[in-house]
Description:
It contains three helices and 19 strands. Helices cover 4% and strands 34% of the residues. The protein has helices spanning 84-88, 231-234, 242-245; strands spanning 17-19, 21-23, 28-29, 34-40, 56-60, 66-68, 94-102, 110-116, 139-140, 153-162, 167-168, 173-178, 181-187, 193-199, 220-228, 252-254, 265-270, 275-277, 285-288.
Amino acid sequence: MNAVQQSLQSFTRVAPFGMGFWDPVSRCLVGDGLEVGLRPQWKGKTPPAWANETHYPAESNPKGIYVAHRLPGLAEFARGAGTEEFWKSQPPRLAFVVTVQDRANRFQPFRLSLKLPQSGLAVYGCDTPEAALPGSSYVPLFSSPTRNAPEGMARLRVELRYGTKERPAAWACVRASHAGKLVASGYADGQGRASLIFPYPVAPTPAVPLATLPPLQERAWPLQISVFSNHTLAKLATAPELCEVFKQPRATLSADGTPPALAAMAASLEYGRDLVLRTSGTSHVLIKPV
Length: 290
């Protein structure tokens, strides 16, 4: 009887892009419903023959991380060894734009610019006021104006417009603080509508017996609302660069319809009720960007 000897070959498949998206509201990775695409970025350069404007999709893996294996210019890389020595010889070199949209309209759309390939989760090169997770490189997602707040969480809603012309303040950044501490941040959609969903502020240890405090349903928390906006970003018809959203300068606000002059607007958040901000006599808040 002749012995049959078989030679088994192994191969590796390396992903030049991987990114995790974190929802601060549900406090979990979002691995479904997102449309994540990448396209090469050619600033003032003539694209090589293999390049085009097609978006190359990233797909969610079983761990909820979006990965892309087949990207233009990185085909040979994807068949690499994936070892530590391999990554050292493959520094990030090709610029890509990542676009993120949510088919279920839970989250705001945005873009990110980065260079690939990258080992581990992709680093996008800017900070946002709401960290995804301490020490992690997950990208935080921000709630859309149509998203409902889960039971037991607060929601702030506002529609932002520019001055007397009342044009939508598209993509304006909104931050809410309590007792000098940031409790939530987000940004408006293309119509100037924003929604911040966040846990109710933790009250400091009271100096009076707990039995004398009002029930939770009757409590309220003072908030300070700040808005950051500029005309350049507001003119965009497409999703903004996430890093640019949080670099916008502070805008002034109007509480009573007079020319905007407030650096921040004071408001009271009541338990179980949406906090809807308005300039007196309107259904929106008037702002003046820098």
